[in-house]
Structures are given as C-alpha cells and as structure tokens.
Amino acid sequence: MRVATWNLKQAVAPRKSVPELLDWADAEIQADVYAFTEAKVTPGVDSRWRYQWNPEGIYPDKANKWGTVIATRSVEFREVTEVRTRLKTRRLEFEWPAAVQVSDVLRNGERWATVVGLYAVTRDRRGENNGSGEYSFPRLMSQLETLLESDRGQRLILAGDFNLWPGHVSGVLKKYGLVDLIEATASSRKPLEGCHDCKYFAGTRRQSPKCGHLFTHRNGMKPRPGKKFGGMIQQIDFVIASPKLAKDVQRVYGGESAFPGIWELSDHAPVVVDFKD
After folding, report:
1. In this predicted model, what pLDDT tens digit does every residue of 131-190 receive, in sequence order?
2. What angle is formed at CA 242 by the lines to CA 257 and CA 28, rounded to 5 degrees?
3. CA triplet 3, 75, 2: central angle to 5 degrees?
4. At 72, phi and psi to the nearest 5?
5. Do strands 232-234 and 110-119 pair parallel, antiparallel, or not at all (unpaired)?
6. Within its chain, how far is the Cα of 95 from the centroid?
7. Exposed e or buried b for every residue in 114-146, given b needs 16+ CB within 10 A?
8. Domains of the chain, with CATH numbers?
9. Measured distance CA(214)–CA(189) in Å, rounded
10. Tens digit of pLDDT for each residue in 32-65?
C-alpha cells in the first residue's frame, strides 16, 4: 500500500492546473492514497479519481476555495466524521474544517488504516497570518485526540504540509506517541546538504540524530542553470504513523532529489511511503 502527500500549490499563483497535476501524480507517484494539500477539486476532473474534501475551503470568506483533499484511484475509502471511545460516540470537529480530512482506507471491505490529511494553516490564535503552523498544528493535533484515543489510533497515518520544520514537530509527535517516518528511516538516506532544520537546531535537544530529511519546499529563488540554489533547503511536509503501522514501512522517499523538475509543477515536492500489504 502506497501513501503519498503533496502540496499542489492551488492557494496562490498555481503553476499547473489540477488535472495536469493529477495526471503527473498518477504517472510518477502511483500511490494508492493521496493527501493533497493546498488543493481543490475542479469540474471536469478525470472521473476515475475519487475524492474527499470540503468545498467551503479553509477560508470560507475568500473566493479561492482550496483545502486538503484525500484522493484515490485504486482503493475504497470511507469518510470518518465521528468515532467511538469507551462508552461515547464523539464527533470530529476542527477549527479549520477544510484543513483536515479523515478517512478509513478499506481493503477487501475491511479497514486497513485510517488516513488523516492535514494542512497546518498559517494563522495564529487571533486569526492573523503568522507564516507558519506554530499555532495551528498543535491546535489541530489536540482536536484529533478523540481519533487517537479510539481503536483507529492503532493504525493511523497522518500526512500533509505542517508548515513547520521537523525540530518543531518532534515534540508534538512525542506527546501523542506518533512516529515521523522520515526521521525513522533517516539512516537509509544520505544527509540533506544545506538542510535548514539541522542548521537551525544544531546543538539543541531538537537536533535530528542523523539528517535524512527531504527537500520538500522551495522557499526562495528558483534555481537557475549553472547557479547554486540560493533559497532555504527545508522540509515541511510529513508522513506520520502510529507505532504499530510504522513497523510495516518498507520504503520512504520523496523531495526534490526523488522528483527532478518538481519545481516546475509546484513549490512543494511529494513525500511517499510504501507499507507492507
């Protein structure tokens, strides 16, 4: 089972149309389940795709209705809006409803895992733009506690654009007992040259034991022929899993090195995880 996340850059200045991006994902990523962020579903898109999304958009007062989309062409999935914990059935509610999508992925009619697509919006507690997920990511994670405490928490995948570096995310994941699959497989990759996370957190408790980060977001000037990239080399896209499901990981890859030419399509590069069937 292959799960991928990719920011399609439909919020501001899209580089390609949604149908073009989906065709590329189908040909180059070939995932069973996608968590697309900064995405939207447009009329006339290939009917072979199935989607789960909120057409109101992350910011309902704005005309551009983008958000998080769970999509597939190969498996069955079912939206999760409420879960049962102990003796209560509780509804899942989020501060930004279009930022989070929760779905059961089914195999042979049985639940294989629950996938959460999440975009950490760049707003603070006052609703003002703060340029990061510093407020929204912990906030949305706290609103996912009901799901984590349910039986679905044992086989859970959380994927998306968190608008934070790994060092910022690690403490939140530790609180909930979740595994960053990129960090967990760091030894299988060469260190990311110029990794901003490793520079920023050098000498602190948040420093990664071994840099195996992926270059998933191009923040800065676009590379030019014959010139070294001058922007920030950073990873802000993640695939996270519950410990039980993390044991089934076979391969984790992505970023600019895995998808050359990706910056012509989006300012983000995909993260892809292969799980045992």
Report:
1. 999 999 999 999 999 999 999 999 999 999 999 999 999 999 999 999 999 999 999 999
2. 30
3. 20
4. -155, 155
5. unpaired
6. 18
7. bbbbbbbbbbeeeeeebebbbbbbbbbbeebeb
8. 2-275 (3.60.10.10)
9. 9
10. 999 999 999 977 677 789 999 999 999 999 999 9
* pTM, to two decimals: 0.94
The residues that bridge with 72 in the sheet, in sequence order, are 50
Place of tokens 């608008």: 163
How many Å from the N-terminal Cα to the C-terminal Cα in the chain?
A: 6
Residue 111 and residue 155: Cα distance in Å, rounded? 9
- What is the rounded distance in angstroms from the CA atom of residue 211 to the CA atom of residue 19? 35
The dihedrals phi and psi of 240, each to the nearest 5 degrees, come to: -115, 150
212 phi, psi to nearest 5 deg: -135, 30
CA gap 95, 78 in Å, rounded: 22
